[in-house]
Specification:
The protein has 238 residues and is an all-alpha fold. The chain has 13 helices and no strands. Helix 2 packs antiparallel against helix 8 and helix 4 (57-72) runs antiparallel to helix 11 (174-183).
Length: 238
């Protein structure tokens, strides 16, 4: 089945997530919010709220709640929470291939495949970005190649579900962002739910090898894991 066939099937199966344009807008906002926090000027925050407001409730609700958190939480606290949540906890890893491949040779190959997809679509990664970071995948799906981006999200659905459940268990405000991301996808299939539970119990595969050319541990090193990215919703200024 081709990538376009997969994307078409996923769109047919999706319920209540809105039009393709609304789904793309939600994913692009989520991409920005999953990046390392920086200072959001009031006009930028207002633009994000304006982008989120007309979306269906299952997308606008959780994204709006996270924007409330951003607006009322000091930046230094946001940055500390981000590092403690995503850089120090295996079950809250934002690098999708880690859930499936762990520290094995297969993860290195998967990273190359991600980058190849981006290159074919004309998307260039910034220095220090790993291609499987969820924020990067969401941006690619929203603004690059929708069909191939949908396929990536679908292939890593079990990891996304474990991430969502782990954030909910921690009562992290980032749970709201993952709730919106998962609402853009079809309901979790039984096989993916079982895979997420198995991951929670056993963890991903492990193998003491390098991951050249992306030498990445379970969490990418600091120079990768907390690098701000220029991701803006459609119509936003840089």
């Amino acid at each position: 089945m081709s990538a376009r066939d997969v994307a078409g099937r996923l769109r047919r199966e999706r319920t209540g997530a809105g039009t393709p344009a609304q789904v793309a807008a939600a994913r692009q906002v989520a991409s920005l919010l999953l990046d390392y926090p920086d200072e959001l000027p009031l006009d930028r925050l207002g633009l994000l709220r304006a982008t989120v407001a007309p979306l269906p409730a299952e997308l606008a609700g959780p994204l709006g709640r996270f924007l409330d958190h951003v607006e009322t939480t000091p930046l230094a606290q946001q940055q500390t929470d981000y590092v403690e949540t995503f850089d120090l906890r295996r079950r809250c890893c934002l690098y999708l291939t880690y859930y499936r491949y762990g520290d094995t040779r297969k993860r290195g190959m998967a990273l190359l495949q991600f980058k190849h997809l981006y290159t074919r679509a004309g998307m260039e990664l910034a220095d220090g970005e790993l291609p499987d970071h969820l924020a990067v995948v969401l941006e690619f799906t929203a603004t690059g190649d929708v069909a191939r981006g949908e396929r990536l999200l679908h292939e890593h659905r079990a990891g996304l579900e474990l991430l969502r459940l782990s954030l909910a268990d921690r009562r992290s405000p980032y749970e709201h962002v993952l709730q919106a991301v998962c609402a853009t996808l079809p309901p979790v299939a039984a096989a993916d739910r079982e895979a997420a539970l198995l991951l929670a119990q056993q963890g991903p595969p492990s193998e003491d090898v390098g991951l050249d050319p992306y030498s990445a541990a379970p969490f990418a090193p600091p120079e990768f894991s907390s690098v701000p990215r220029a991701a803006t919703p459609t119509g936003a200024s840089a």
